[in-house]
Design a protein that fits this description.
heterodimer; A: 573 residues; alpha+beta; six-stranded antiparallel β-sheet; B: 212 residues; mainly alpha
Chain lengths: 573, 212
């Protein structure tokens, strides 16, 4: 694709190319509409992805240099005051993938649907003091067929096992069978059975058998944080954008950083302004604009796009843009299995690399315990092996149990033991990050990026209830590891914001005074602006977000196709 | 000088927040564990050049004395034994020079590595009135042990160790870990596809621009 676009006007202009963008490009281009995708980062093709730890993990290859594109984060200091620091100073990197396909290239593809009660959290569980909980303007039933669509088009492998919180499905099972599993999955099942509850397989956005243009998983042992070299992983790039390109109706322009959306004075966007790779200012016209730049940057673009009609930022006369940003609450834990405690056969089977654990605990998706005064929303626990990244594993061995740096023979012994005499099983806890007034996006008044535009400033406050739920689930997960016979079991629950699990900031709702978007994710205040990344989510459920973002984007794509058809009829009539 | 006094003197060294982050044991949730060196505040390569005063290595980045210090420190941190490889076996010194020459890494962070060499030599002079390189092997190890208890020493040695680990795990295509001795010793299996001349770090930036 040349630096220039083929046209200077499109039916649809999409800002961003990740999970929120892919379905729009796919559906609209298939329906015959001219689509332009403006992506800030470069265009890595499938052939460019390898399992090189230096490139993929140890350096900022897929994300911007923080000197060029810093963000500012506010956290509470020891005196309880909010303190803002640029991540250029702290190194806390919240970029997740600036390239065609966005961070979906690097997801692990642990796919869970949100459950029906997640759409009516306020009605079901009531208010929690200092939390801005609301019901969604749509229900699980409204989204179900789009979840199913994602299973088929993006490709989700797995097996449906009935359990007490299994959501209703319009199809019996997944279109792709489960991926191959390590023997430890059976050990998990057995331990849960002993404890009297059910553990279920985790659906994965990874193909277990080939699809027309995509190969099946090759079990490389390096999945999360790495781009997929077989296209088995259902990234927006591999599963949707590549197919959109084949229609001949979709153009992708990489290295195009949108910095302003221009309106006509009547609440309608007429142009997207962007910098090209040479930092020259360019502009593009379109009928409809879709923003899907991931939550923090989507809110930032709207706030940057202020003008006399929108003095507080585009679609922000309500003052809601950037508010109620949410992450995923919870934390992690782990336990070790030492080979000396196992039979030779068990060790051989446990050491098999590449194959997955794929087990999830949903038993406490709803907690019914007097510690919570009855029923409360709980969450999900996913089980997985420690990542194969060797440098990262070695780094964690630099300190002894007392926190002292070790080196020389002591370090070498520690490394040898860690790498060759045990395998670590981890768990990751996902609970609702309650929306509060202490978690939001604004523009930093001073710090600017390499294009001289104000950067995002994010306050990272969390609700104490999040920790209570996280700790409850950690106890259950640790109990399972104990039943399995794991050693050195530990967990870490904190209010730290996971940088790759961020949504909200432009919540959808029926009241224009309390939400940015209507139920179809169109801005209340702007005639032709849609937001289809995770920004629309007013609450996050207790699962990873990508499946819901994909499903919702397919839902909005259907609305847009109908709207474009209606517009064509109206114009011709 | 007693250990306590030595620690008091050298704990006052300034360590940037970015270095603290880099060396901390962060637990990430399905996250990029990007303990990259590409963090910091300054932007001029002149910082590195300013340290050159007594002849330099081939890449013109470290003085010969600085490079000698690097090699000695690396071999103390990660020695070679009969049954296991050491830093020398995967050319950790040359790997460090490669990192120092990487223009994508912030010069301030690379300068920290060089400043640490200076501080180490200062610590040797404070304790033994001589340069670190002139100490006996036993006293060099003792001094490393001592500074590892200080804030600056722990941070700097931690960075040095991270770079040794990166060299030990690096793909042979980079030219350091050519016989994969570290990987073999740890029974570590690399993933496929492995990097090529077109997809290895640095070259990949050129490769992807050709896609656009």
């Amino acid at each position: 694709m040349p630096k220039e676009t083929r046209n200077n006007s499109y039916d649809i202009c999409i800002v961003g190319s990740g999970a929120g963008a892919g379905p729009i490009a796919y559906e609209l281009s298939k329906a015959g509409y001219k689509v332009l995708v403006l992506e800030k980062g470069p265009w890595f093709k499938t052939k460019d992805f390898t399992k090189d730890e230096i490139t993929a993990v140890r350096r900022s290859v897929y994300t911007p240099n923080l000197k060029d594109e810093p963000q500012v984060f506010e956290t509470k200091n020891s005196r309880g005051e909010w303190e803002a620091k640029s991540n250029y100073k702290t190194g806390k990197d919240f970029w997740n993938g600036s390239l065609v396909g966005g961070s979906s290239n690097f997801m692990s593809g642990y796919f869970h649907r949100m459950k029906p009660d997640d759409f009516r959290l306020l009605s079901k569980y009531g208010t929690i003091k200092n939390a801005n909980i609301v019901d969604w303007p749509i229900s699980y039933e409204d989204l179900e067929r789009y979840y199913t669509k994602v299973e088929k088009i993006v490709g989700v492998s797995g097996k449906v096992i009935p359990h007490k919180f299994q959501e209703e499905r319009s199809t019996k099972d997944f279109p792709y069978p489960p991926l191959a599993e390590n023997v430890i999955s059976k050990w998990i099942d057995k331990a849960a059975n002993n404890l009297g509850y059910k553990i279920v397989p985790i659906p994965r956005a990874i193909l277990s058998k080939p699809e027309k243009e995509r190969s099946s998983c090759v079990y490389s042992n390096y999945c999360g944080s790495y781009g997929c070299a077989s296209d088995a992983k259902g990234s927006s790039r591999a599963a949707l954008l590549n197919k959109a390109l084949k229609t001949g109706n979709c153009d992708i322009l990489p290295n195009a950083k949108v910095y302003h959306l221009e309106t006509n004075g009547n609440g309608k966007i007429i142009k997207a302004h962007y910098y090209d790779i040479d930092k020259n200012k360019q502009e593009i016209k379109a009928t409809i604009f879709v923003v899907a730049a991931q939550a923090i940057e989507t809110s930032r673009l709207l706030l940057l796009s202020k003008n006399k009609d929108f003095p507080n930022g585009l679609a922000n006369n309500s003052g809601q843009v950037g508010k109620n940003l949410i992450f995923s609450a919870g934390g992690t834990g782990s336990g070790q299995f030492f080979y000396k405690d196992l039979t030779k056969k068990e060790v051989e089977e446990l050491k098999v690399p590449g194959v997955f654990v794929n087990r999830s605990m949903h038993h406490w998706y709803e907690i019914d315990d007097e510690k919570f005064n009855g029923k409360a929303k709980g969450g999900t626990v996913d089980f997985l092996f420690e990542h194969a990244n060797a440098t990262s594993k070695a780094i964690r061995q630099k300190w002894d149990d007392s926190g002292n740096l070790v080196f020389g023979p002591a370090l070498k012994k520690k490394l040898k033991n860690y790498f060759t005499k045990q395998r670590k099983l981890k768990f990751e806890i996902f609970a609702d990050w309650l929306p509060t007034d202490d978690c939001f996006v604004t523009l930093d008044p001073k710090i600017k990026d390499k294009w001289k535009d104000q950067v995002a400033r994010v306050r990272l406050g969390y609700h104490s209830h999040d920790l209570k739920v996280g700790n409850y689930l950690a106890t259950k997960a640790a109990g399972l590891l104990q039943e399995m016979g794991a050693k050195n079991i530990n967990s870490n629950i904190s209010g730290g914001a996971p940088s790759n699990l961020v949504v909200g900031g432009c919540r959808f709702g029926n009241d224009p005074k309390k939400s940015v978007l209507d139920k179809n994710c169109k801005a209340h205040e702007v005639e032709n602006l849609y937001i289809t990344d995770g920004s629309f989510m007013p609450t996050g459920g207790s699962v990873t977000y990508t499946w819901t973002i994909y499903a919702n984007s397919f839902r909005v794509a259907e609305v847009l196709v109908k709207q474009m058809k209606l517009k064509a009829i109206t114009s011709s009539g | 000088m007693s250990e306590n006094k030595l620690m008091k003197n050298i704990q006052d060294k300034a360590i940037s927040q970015s270095i603290k982050e880099f060396t901390s044991q962060r637990i990430s949730r399905r996250n990029f564990i990007r303990n990259s060196l590409a963090i910091g505040a300054l932007s001029q390569m002149t910082l590195l050049q300013s340290c050159i005063n007594d002849g330099t290595d081939e890449s013109n980045i470290l003085s010969k004395k600085q490079l000698a210090l690097v090699i000695v420190v690396q071999n103390i941190l990660f020695p070679r034994y009969e049954d296991s490889p050491g830093a020398i076996d995967f050319n950790a010194d040359k790997y460090l020079l490669w990192v120092l020459s990487d223009r994508r890494i912030d010069p301030e962070d690379n300068q920290y590595i060089i400043t640490g060499l200076k501080w180490l030599d200062e610590a040797a002079k404070e304790e033994k009135n001589t340069h670190f390189l002139k100490l006996s092997k036993r006293k060099q190890v003792q001094l490393i042990q001592t500074i590892s208890k200080t804030n600056w020493g722990e941070s700097w040695l931690s960075v040095m160790l991270t770079l040794i680990f990166e060299a030990m795990i690096s793909d042979p295509i980079y030219g350091f870990n050519t016989n994969e001795s570290g990987r073999k010793w740890l029974e570590h299996e690399a993933g496929y596809p492995r990097p090529t001349k077109e997809t290895m770090y640095d070259e990949i930036f050129i490769t992807v621009q050709q896609n656009s």
